[in-house]
Amino acid sequence: MCNSNNSRPLPLVQWFSPDGDFLDYGSPLVISNITRNLAGIYTCVADQFTATMNSSVEIIVHFPCDELKSTDIIIVNMSSTAVGSTATYQCRDGPTDVYTTQCTNTGEWDPHPYTLDCNTDPGVSSGKGGVGLPAILGVAITLLLVVVLCTTTVVVVVFVLRRRTSKPLTHSF
């Protein structure tokens, strides 16, 4: 609402769209059948012949995301397209990591740092900006094996050295 009740004479009130197009005279501005395209900053201009005042208001339209597009490689499983819902996707041609993204209140899907590459061997995915679970598990198992082998080697070396340096007990009578 663009309010100027206390001024005399009453000003001419005009509303302009976010694109600067004239919308209507008077106050309040009524927008019917609102859609996502109507979001933006609307400006009210009150002209009293001797002075001009303007004020702006931002209209934010919350709406669900459009359904994600499915390609030949990616399957998109969605339980809902409501604000805050999630979408999970993975490769068709074999087991891969599962990635999740979330719908924002502006109807956009949060940017996701991963790109699945299903043209490689089944079970292998490449992530732009991240490392998949199979790669992490592979590194962890390799490190564990190295630690176990090193520990075993140290124990064996210590045991052998102790046997070599121990002198037999001799008794003299």
Describe the structure.
With 173 residues, this protein is α+β, with helices and mostly antiparallel strands. Among the domains are: 12-59, Immunoglobulin-like (Sandwich), CATH 2.60.40; 62-131, Complement Module, domain 1, CATH 2.10.70. 19% of the residues lie in helices and 23% in strands. The protein contains one helix and seven strands, in the order E-E-E-E-E-E-E-H. It has one helix spanning 133-165, and strands spanning 12-16, 22-25, 40-47, 52-59, 74-78, 86-91, 99-102. The strands form two sheets. Strands 2-1-3-4 form a four-stranded antiparallel sheet, with no helix packed on it. The protein is elongated and about 110 Å long. The chain starts with 11 loop residues before the first strand and ends in an 8-residue tail after the last helix. Residues 72-81 and 113-131 have low confidence and may be disordered.
- CATH fold title of the domain at 62-131: Complement Module, domain 1
Q: What's the overall geometry?
A: elongated
Radius of gyration: 35 Å
State the end-to-end CA separation: 117 Å
Poorly predicted regions are 72-81, 113-131
CATH arch. level architecture of the domain at 62-131: Ribbon
What's the β-strand tally? 7
Number of helices: 1
Strand order of the largest sheet: 2-1-3-4
Helix/strand/pairing class, anyone? alpha+beta
Summarize the main sheet.
4 strands, antiparallel
Q: What is the mean pLDDT? A: 64
Bin the helical content.
10-25%
Report the sheet-strand fraction.
15-25%
What is the ordering of alpha helices and beta strands? EEEEEEEH
- CATH class designation of the domain at 62-131: Mainly Beta
Disulfide bonds: 91-118
Domain Sushi: 63-120
Keywords: Disulfide bond, Membrane, Sushi, Transmembrane, Transmembrane helix
Protein name: Ig-like domain-containing protein
